[in-house]
Design brief:
The complex is a heterodimer of chains A (126) and B (645). Chain A has a domain of 80 residues: Cytochrome c-like domain (Cytochrome Bc1 Complex, Chain D, domain 2). Chain A has 7 helices and no strands. A 6-stranded parallel β-sheet of chain B has the order 2-1-3-4-6-5, with helices on both faces. A 5-stranded parallel β-sheet of chain B has the order 8-7-9-12-13, with helices on both faces. A 5-stranded parallel β-sheet of chain B has the order 14-15-16-18-17, sandwiched between helices. The longest helix of chain B is centred in the C-terminal third of the chain and has 29 residues. The chains are: A mainly alpha (126), B alpha/beta (645). Chains A and B meet through α1 and α5 of A and β10, α16, α17, β14 and α18 of B.
Amino acid sequence: MNVMKSLVFGLQSAVLGLLLVAAVSAQTPAPQPNAASLGNVEAGKKLFVSDGCYQCHGYEAQGSNATGPRLGPRPIAFAAFSRYVRQPTGQMPPYTTKVVSDADLTNIYAFVSSRPAPAANILLLK
Amino acid sequence: MSEKHSVDRRDFLKTAAVTGAAALSAGSAAAAAQAPQGTPPTQASAPVAPREVDPGGNVEVLTTDRPGGDFMVDVIKTLDFEFIASNPGSSFRGIHESIINYGNNTKPEFITCCHEESAVAMAHGYFKAEGRPMAVLCHGTVGMQHAAMAIYNAYCDRVPVYVLAGNSLDATLRRPGVEWAHSVQDAAAMVRDFIKWDDQPISLPHFAESAMRAYKIAMTPPMMPVLLVIDGGLQEDPISHEVSSRLRIPRLTVATPPQGDSGAVAEAARLLVNAQNPVIVADRAARTPAGITHLISLAEALQAPVVSQGGRMNFPSRHPLNQTSNSRQLIADADVILGLELTDFWGTVSAMRDGLTRTSRSLVKPGTKLISITALDLATKGNYQDFQRYPEVDVAMAADAEATLPALVEACKRATSSDRRSAFEARGKRLATAHASALERARAEAAYAWDASPISTARMTMELWAQIKNEDWALVAESGIMSDWTARLWSFEKHYQSLGGSGGAGVGYGAPAAVGAALANKKHGRLSVTIQGDGDFLYAPGVWWTAAHHRIPLLAVMHNNRAYHQEVMHVQRMANRHNRGITRAHIGTTIDDPNVDFAKIAQGLGVHAQGPITNPNDLGPAIKRALDVVKRGEPSLIDVVTQPR
């Protein structure tokens, strides 16, 4: 039961800032399909790994309560997404345009948007 | 060392043996009656005298049948240790031989370890499962240095480990070479900052008293490791007549844990009963099953939410008042927070941002009252900084939380009016709804990436749960950060089902602690399972041989994310802060190229093993096969390639 909390080394606090994003996500009426469609999903998948997004959010952008929230399949609006990546208010490290270009960020956004919705009625989760 | 020194040693032994023989000539019924049987710790033992020894005449005496180590075993048996874990070392060869022959290798039974860190961490895990300490034997100097990390973990986790270390005090009697390198003036110095007490007895009567004192100190909250340094001569030399007349094993009475002051308890009850939004936060609160019962009583008396920080199994995970998943909001809304044996009360009510500039802020409203009950207020060590930042609390009880809870429960009941009782009931209903919602949210989140490869930690958690939930299971360790899925999705009820973490966050605790706890669980017939991190595995994998050798049943499912992932994220943080990108964050932090074949390592150590498993659909059948092995009484390991968290 949360036995390795000491190893989290403060990163659980990252959830605070990023949960705000998640909360915004829940209130967002719909994703911006235009922004997602502008990006390349396959390129975004590679960038999601090479830029280290997976480290906190998982390879499928499924998130973790210890490090960073779920990002897909219905991310927050691209403008808010981009703003948070550039200027995060929580524990997330900032990604400037020098590190991740706007084009790359668009591809990443396309990738997280494309994540499949979970299957319903998973027996082991009943 | 010259030949003369060797002759001196023989002369010394001869003199001692003859002295012992003289003692025997005086006659002692007690000597003949003395048997190497253990007695419960609370009972006194009879005086001990030497057995008959060969008088020898004028020939050189080469043997003794009553070395000092035998008496040490009598003392250790009195303390009722089941096991003594050790990597063998010549500095304790005397007591080693006495344990296995004179003591018949029972109570304690010698557990062969491949590293002293494993031996101590096994004792660490064993205590948390069994509730009583295991003894550990460490080789002089080098063994203690190996053991130091695990001792520090136990110290931070407030766990008693009973450490005995060999040494050779008399410089004129040391064998040349290695024995000098392993001898030290002050063997305890290297660990004294993170143990509770130590001694280096200079006689067997001294050993007996210090052995009792060490046990008593270790077992009094705040519990911590203790160390007895035992001289090689004291172990090996015959017991002299003069000493035998003074040998006795003192009576041991373990101290009752300190309870909170009655006035402070009454004030805490007043604050809790009158609070609109009280929160109970527990970390290492429940030392025994009774601790869980008391905490349930308190929570139900107040219908107050409980947040478990997981240092121990404090509160059933499916109890409607368990609000661990909602802790952040509850802390923010609280007007009274009761902290029970918290490692970090400041960190519980504050947040720090790890940015270019470190900033912190309070998470609680102004005026929120903080009540602390912790035996750590009685700890006085200052060098190592595990005590965390100073918390500004309103009521501080320097007391053991579990021992104080019954009085606090009664005080709360006495202070509760009918109006407050009605308010409590309404609060309880709201909390029950919140608890159910949190469980549903967790299940919904677990569904994401369910079919992914690498396998999601949620999928792995639930594949395992499906096959153990109807057994008498115990999650003995969880070395790897798994998004708290077990706490969020499993039903924890019993005190041995969750044992908390390492304490000092020294990686390498998970595997040996799991083996130690599984050793404790074996006689109870419990199914021990562990989530085994890959980095943790690689510290001292020899402990898996120990598990195989001693037939310790344990199911290990690996959380193998092929990295020291915490450090990947730290390097990423630095790289981003320095605006350099993270493309090199894997350097020095990942465990790939080549990927480690953990199953092959485990198989080489005599452990049934499978993997690497990368397809989530293969996991369930692999767990079933592994369980068949574990139920036969052996360890089994499954290497599962997983998502990072």
